[in-house]
Design brief:
Largest interface: A-B, 35 and 38 residues
Radius of gyration of chain B: 18 Å
Number of strands of chain A: 20
Shape of chain A: elongated
Distance between the termini of chain B: 29 Å
Oligomer: heterodimer
Number of helices of chain A: 26
Largest sheet of chain B: 6 strands, mixed
Helix content of chain A: 55-70%
Radius of gyration of chain A: 34 Å
Strand order of the largest sheet of chain A: 2-3-8-5-7-6
Distance between the termini of chain A: 62 Å
Shape of chain B: globular
Helix content of chain B: 25-40%
Structural class of chain B: alpha/beta
Order of helices and strands of chain B: EEEHEEHEHHHEHEHEEH
Strand order of the largest sheet of chain B: 6-7-8-3-9-10
Number of strands of chain B: 10
Number of helices of chain B: 8
Chain lengths: 863, 235
């Protein structure tokens, strides 16, 4: 129990503390009355970082909110049940109909043939009379669905994407064939309400009726066709609970249907995942901008405190304690950081509005921009914590600088550690920052790698600065005065070397990483195809026609390599006794469980695979089903040799034991599968084959001839030209790279700001030095030369590091995260180095020129 | 008034105003002055009389609005800023009240700067000798912040003397020092003047220090006082 006597002094102490805090606050604001000059870089750095994080956060929330709000429309109902390669049975359909209004949609790839014989790959979509149950399609002319799709004068109706019309030179009213059916293009399709739920396609959309699809002859046993049954509950009974009840009822009643079930809450899980993944990436880029900006904060705080040495000395001489002085400047720094953060916040909050305003009509989803306080608060916290983390070191050192030293002319040579309490405060702030970044990350492993890499880069840059200074100190004294002055400037106490190397090094690392990733992605998707890559994929080859198809290709294309394997689609429904939702896969392996996968069976190990564990079943193996698993993904799913895996194929569960593991070279673009089964695993299951054709030489004309010949002889087979498919993927990648470049520009801008700030911080010393040197006989050109040489030497040393560290980071991201091959691009690296040197010397000399143009007399008079 | 063959410094009707608008002040008002080669001249006068400004004009650090300045046979009117810098590096040594050492350079590097700028191959050896000559042979690698005021001023003196200039200008060289240290610096200054035969112009508040010079020039309100009046004032 606390006695009254001890409470009274405690209350007195509290009052005293409150008074001291109020006083510190008053003094801090009083000093800021002089304006914010000297803090502009600080404010800009924090504003930029906060803007990036706030902008990315609010934009992403606007997107996911819209996804959630539009989920029912995107899905085309309250729940969707999709099957691959088979239609729902009459019993299954009947049960679904007891639950609500059912509409059926099917999708597959097909070939559209114009009357002049030209062919194009399309994403076929067949719909029933209920389509669309929610939302509306946008088409010109706008026709009622029945009128759009019904059969008239021997042709079914169709709505076609503008890309298809342009590709085949078609106009509304033209007739085309798909398989064995004729279609009349009755309208130009510009959007479907449920398009996003389908993911990215390889060709333009061709919307037809179910009757038309059945007439085309494309529905063969085992054709790669996806049937989606959408159930819409009555509007007044479509609560979340009702949807949950519906999916549970279907699961319970039809446990072995093998369908993929989606409810309106996860209408497009792939898109949602991509948004989350991309948001995390861009948030990390924003954090990188903040970290780079943090260096600017540290530099600005240090030079601010340098300028305030007399004031600090006076305050201390008049009785202010170390704590008191620390508190005054801490408050001041926090106020300035808050100003920067609020500016960033305001601009970031406007980003969704700006994006919707500028690109609203191009977005595939109606986005309603809004202010999202949680995202804004988070970016504010990031901004303030970063400012604090970087300001605490210079602030802490104020505490112990003796008054006498403050009055003396100093060079910044004295270097002392702040007291332990400030180091603890710094550690707490950093820990908080890391905890928030990791906790909120979509992929915690990537967040941790980012944090580790950032710490390593900071440490390395510090070591490089020390190394460059030590190296310059030990260099033999060159005869050339200019070079001697430049080298001396690099290692002198108070030299710009550490801050320039840190800011330039961080900026260069980011820039080199981005350009190397960029170049590699472009090479991968838009440049020449990998050697031995096939020119064609053929899908939906009926099993019975396999040999005839091979022979047909051989007669049409000589010297070609043809590979053909059976292909089924199936979903993993159980592995090592666990359901997919209980497996807890690693983030890079989760996709295997999220949808149906291509499966094959074979007696021989597929080309492009390498056995790394276990043994391959013999050519005559006819025993219980065995499966060969891709090693990396098996590890990601926690699977080992001997574990059982159950896949649902065509509504039937097949359980196989893992007999071996393979590594797969995905990049040769050959036929490869995650799961390869033993020959008899799917005995009796209807399926088609997939084939590749690798030509020694090919032209657009010869490829067109092949497509035509195949379409003539095998109307149900779809030809996919690899070059075009890659182009489609490449276009998506190019857009992603553009977004990455845009957000990285924020980091680069921060780095340039910090560099400018670091060079400006040395301006006062530069003016003094220049005036004294001019007094002693130095000409302007000579000084300019020495300074340019100094910046060049520092810039070169940093550039070497930036290229090295950026290349390593890019190599890690490209090979480990993207699973692609990496080729170092020397030209872009050289351009980055040249650009960095130009910026460093440019900014450095711009400031120096100002120093050199100062007249000596007024400066000397005031010194 | 034309510069004679034995004049180290010749000023002819020099006028200088500083500041702009209402704050513009006419500092030097028609100053004409000749200083003979090898002589020591003390420049004395109250604060604001224009002593230091006149010294800056003699050093080419300040350009007069009107008038002629000839130093060591070179007319400043013919030189641009870089020309003036080169001339200073060759012919003029300056010692300031606030030392004006470069804080990021060691004592040796500070002294070597004018020699290096003049292209001397043995700049550091000569700088070390100059520092030894002012008694700082053991402080070569100290930074200014590691030296006392007196030591800093000795470094500044060594730096001014290092290129062996024809003219040494000193602006209140003892102003920031205690009496004893100031006395040592002054002794050193006059010893070097005598030893090297260079022209010495010394700006000071201190009458007794000025009296150690061969000639005393007294300034008042931007004008040179007549010798008689000056002697009367000193008497």
């Amino acid at each position: 129990m606390t006695s009254l006597a001890s409470e009274i002094p405690a209350a007195g102490e509290k009052r005293q503390r409150d008074r001291a805090a109020a006083q510190a606050f008053r003094y801090a604001l009083r000093e800021l009355r002089g304006g914010l000059s000297g803090f502009y870089v600080f404010i800009a750095c924090i504003a930029l970082g906060v803007f990036a994080i706030a902008g990315v956060g609010t934009l992403s929330t606007s997107l996911t909110d819209s996804l959630e709000r539009e989920g029912r429309t995107l899905l085309g109902g309250d729940a969707a049940f999709s099957l691959i390669q088979r239609e729902a049975s009459a019993a299954e359909l009947a049960f679904l109909r007891t639950q609500g209004q059912v509409s059926t949609v099917s999708t597959m790839r097909g070939m559209v043939r114009a009357q002049d014989g030209r062919l194009a790959l399309v994403e076929l979509k067949s719909v029933d009379d209920n389509y669309p149950t929610l939302g509306k399609i946008k088409a010109t002319p706008d026709l009622p669905m029945r009128q759009l799709l019904d059969r008239r004068d021997g042709a079914f109706g169709a709505a076609a994407d503008g890309v298809l019309l342009a590709r085949l030179g078609l106009i509304i009213g033209d007739r085309v064939t798909v398989g064995t059916a004729t279609f009349e293009i009755r309208t130009l399709l510009s959007s479907e309400p449920d398009k996003l739920a389908g993911g990215v396609g390889l060709g333009p959309r061709f919307l037809i009726g179910e009757e038309g699809l059945r007439a085309s002859g494309l529905i063969q046993p085992g054709s790669l066709i996806r049937w989606i049954y959408r159930v819409k509950l009555p509007d007044n009974a479509a609560s979340e609970a009702a949807v949950e009840k519906l999916t549970s009822a279907v699961r319970a009643e039809l446990p072995d249907a093998g369908w993929e079930i989606r409810s309106r809450g996860n209408a497009s899980p792939q898109l949602e995942r991509n948004i989350s993944r991309f948001t995390q990436f861009l948030t990390l880029v924003g954090l990188a901008a903040l970290l780079v900006g943090g260096v600017g904060v540290a530099n600005a705080v240090k030079s601010h405190l340098d300028r305030k040495r007399d004031v600090i000395a006076t305050l201390k001489a008049l009785g202010a304690t170390g704590d008191g002085v620390f508190t005054i400047y801490l408050v001041q720094i926090l106020v300035v950081a808050l100003i920067g953060a609020l500016i960033g916040l305001a601009i970031g909050a406007m980003l969704p509005f700006a994006v919707v305003g500028a690109f609203g009509s191009l977005l595939p989803l109606p986005i309603e921009p809004a202010v999202h306080p949680t995202d804004l608060l988070l970016s504010l916290v990031y901004g303030l914590l970063t400012a604090l983390a970087f300001a605490l070191w210079p602030l802490g050192r104020v505490h112990d600088v003796p008054v006498a030293t403050l009055f003396r002319e100093t060079t910044g040579a004295e270097w002392s550690w702040p007291r332990r309490r400030y180091l603890v405060m710094m550690a707490v702030v950093l820990a908080l920052l890391i905890a928030i970044a990791v906790t909120l990350a979509y992929d915690k492993r990537i967040a941790l790698i980012f944090i580790g890499a950032s710490a390593a880069v900071f440490l390395l840059l510090r070591l490089i600065a020390l190394g460059v200074m030590a190296g310059a100190r030990r260099l033999p004294r060159p005869r050339m005065t200019l070079l001697r002055m430049a080298i001396a400037n690099i290692h002198r106490p108070g030299a710009l070397t550490p801050s320039v190397i840190l800011s330039l090094g961080l900026g260069l690392t980011v820039l080199v990483t981005i350009t190397q990733i960029d170049r590699n992605l472009q090479r991968q998707f838009t440049a020449s195809l990998p050697e031995r890559a096939p020119s064609f994929f053929f899908v939906d080859i009926p099993s019975a026609d396999g040999d005839r198809f091979d022979a047909f290709l051989r007669t049409h294309v000589t010297d070609a390599k043809i590979e053909r394997v059976p292909m089924l689609r199936g979903r993993i429904v159980e592995a090592r006794g666990l359901k997919p939702e209980e497996l807890k896969p690693s983030p890079d392996a989760a996709w295997v469980l999220q949808s149906d996968r291509g499966l094959t069976y074979t007696s021989e190990m597929p080309a492009g695979s390498k056995l790394v564990e276990g043994e391959w079943w013999g050519p005559d193996y006819r025993g219980a089903p065995l499966v060969s698993f891709e090693k990396k993904l098996a590890d990601g799913l926690g699977l080992k040799l001997g574990d059982s895996v159950t896949v649902n194929v065509l509504g039937r569960n097949v359980t196989a034991k893992i007999a071996n593991m393979r590594t797969v070279d995905w990049q040769n673009l050959g036929i490869n599968f995650v799961l390869v089964f033993s020959p008899d695993a799917f005995r009796g299951a209807p399926h088609t084959h997939i084939a590749t054709l690798t030509e020694p030489t090919s032209t657009a004309e010869s490829d067109a001839a092949i497509i035509k010949a195949v379409a003539d002889a095998f109307p149900s087979v779809t030809s996919v030209r690899v070059r075009e498919a890659l182009q489609m993927v490449g276009d998506v990648v190019t857009n992603l790279v553009l977004a990455i470049r845009g957000s990285s520009a924020v980091t680069l801008l921060a780095a340039i700001l910090v560099l400018g700030g670091a060079l400006a911080a040395g301006h006062r010393h530069r003016v003094y030095d220049a005036v004294i040197l001019k007094t002693l006989g130095a000409t302007r050109n000579r000084l300019l030369g020495a300074y340019a040489l100094e910046y060049l030497l520092i810039g070169l040393a940093t550039a070497v590091f930036g290229v090295l560290s950026g290349s390593v980071a890019a190599w890690l991201i490209v090979t480990r995260l993207m699973n692609l091959s990496f080729a170092w691009d020397g030209v872009s690296a050289a351009l980055v180095v040249a650009g960095a040197l130009a910026v460093t010397i440019g900014i450095g000399l711009a400031g120096t020129l100002l120093a050199l143009n100062q007249k000596p007399a007024p400066i000397l008079r005031n010194l | 008034m034309r510069a004679g063959p034995t004049d180290a410094i010749s000023l002819d009707n020099v006028n200088l105003s500083l500041g702009a608008g209402p704050a513009r002040v006419h500092i030097l008002k028609g100053i004409s002055l000749r200083i003979a080669q090898g002589s020591a001249v003390g420049m004395i006068g109250p604060s604001g009389s224009g002593k230091s400004t006149l010294l800056m004009v003699m050093a080419g650090l300040e350009r007069p609005d009107a008038g002629q300045v000839v130093v060591d046979g070179t007319s400043f009117n013919d030189l641009d800023e870089d020309g003036l810098a080169r001339f200073r590096g060759r012919s003029i040594g300056i010692v300031f009240q606030s030392f004006h050492l470069i804080p990021t350079m060691t004592a040796l590097e500070n002294v070597a700067v004018p020699l290096e700028l003049a292209g001397a191959a043995d700049a550091h050896e000569r700088a070390a000798r100059e520092l030894a000559a002012v008694g700082l042979g053991d402080r070569l690698h100290h930074y200014p912040s590691q030296l006392s005021g007196g030591e800093q001023q000795r470094v500044a003196l060594a730096r001014a003397l290092a290129p062996d200039p024809a003219i040494l200008l000193a602006d209140e060289p003892t102003g920031n020092l205690d009496e004893k240290t100031g006395q040592q610096i002054v002794d050193l200054l006059f010893a070097k003047h005598a030893e090297r035969g260079m022209t010495l112009v010394l700006v000071t508040h201190d009458n007794s220090l000025a009296q150690r010079c061969e000639r005393v020039v007294r300034l008042r309100s931007g004008r040179v006082e007549q010798p008689a009046a000056a002697h009367a004032a000193m008497a």
